[in-house]
Amino acid sequence: MRVLGVDPGLTRCGIGVVDGGPGTALRLVGTTAVTTPSDADIGRRLVMIEEQLDAWLTRYEPDAVAVERVFSQHNVRTVMGTAQAGAIAIVCAARRGLPVALHTPSEVKAAVTGSGRADKAQVTHMVVRLLKLTDPPKPADAADALALAICHLWRGGAQSRLAAASAAVASGSAVSSRAASSRAASSRAVSSRAVSSRTRPPGGTR
Predict the structure, then answer these.
(1) Angle at which helices 105-113 and 120-130 cross, to 10°
(2) Percent helix, strand and coil across the chain, each rounded to 5?
(3) Domain 2-162, second-level architecture
(4) Predicted pLDDT at 78
(5) β pairing state of 2-7 and 12-21
(6) Are 99 and 65 in contact (CB under 8 A)?
(7) Is 49 helix (H, G, I), strand (E, B) or coil?
(8) For residue 156, which of 201, 99, 197, 110 has the smallest C-alpha distance?
(9) How far apart are CA 138 and CA 144, in angstroms?
(10) DSSP secondary structure of 145-189
């Protein structure tokens, strides 16, 4: 499976592509960070991010896209920029019919390092080890994007299987409910005909 991870940000938006899955070796496919000038119009900055994300989706053709879920911060302006960039990533993926998963920073840290409270240095260190890199990905946003992709490769498959199982159970329940309703309706119809037959006088007249 190939996953494109996105660490959203308005000034720097990390992108990382990783191949792998549970029980299989991870392989770095590519990584970068899209930068936009802080003095540019917000619309233009979002277009720049969209263009780069589209280019990466076209070039690497991932099976899924993992985006960091926005969480509360003290700096509201930073939260807004992160949310806007994240929305662009979601739209780019949805336009191509790709499944999108949102992972919180704690989920990513726990998946990569084993601790949901790990700091950025620890996450980067584990990304280097897991992908067998000689140097840490730079900037840090690129390492975070790779961590997101790894998190989804390891956790997303299980989540997808659980969702599929739940859907199958729900579908089976719906089929059983329809079958039971059909049997009940048939039973009522048979009973109605039997009653009618008993109450009808000979010769078909009352």
Answers:
(1) 50
(2) 60, 20, 25
(3) 2-Layer Sandwich (3.30)
(4) 81
(5) antiparallel
(6) yes
(7) helix
(8) 99
(9) 10
(10) HHHHHHHIIIIIHHHHHHHHHHHHHHHHHHHHHHHHHHHHHHHHH
Q: Which pLDDT does position 159 carry in this prediction?
A: 47
Pick the closest to residue 148 from 64, 57, 67, 81 (CA basis). Answer: 67
* CA-CA-CA-CA dihedral for 85, 90, 92, 98, to nearest 10: 150
Q: If the chain, 206 residues long, is cut into consecutive pieces of 10 residues, what is the mean pLDDT of each piece?
A: 97 97 93 97 97 98 96 76 96 98 96 95 97 94 97 75 50 57 59 54 50
- How many CB atoms are closer than 10 A to CB 57? 20
E-strand spans in 8-139? Answer: 12-21, 24-35, 64-68, 100-103
Catalytic residues: 7, 68, 141
Whether the upstream peptide bond of residue 105 has omega within 30° of 0, thus cis, is no
- The string over 150-167, giving b where at least 16 C-beta atoms fall within 10 Å of a residue's C-beta and e elsewhere, is bbbbbbbeeeeeeeeeee
Residue with tokens 């996953």, as numbered in its chain: 3
**CB 111 within 8 Å of CB 151:** yes
Q: Which of 166, 134, 133, 161 is nearest to 22 (CA)?
A: 161
Q: Where are the domains of the chain?
A: 2-162
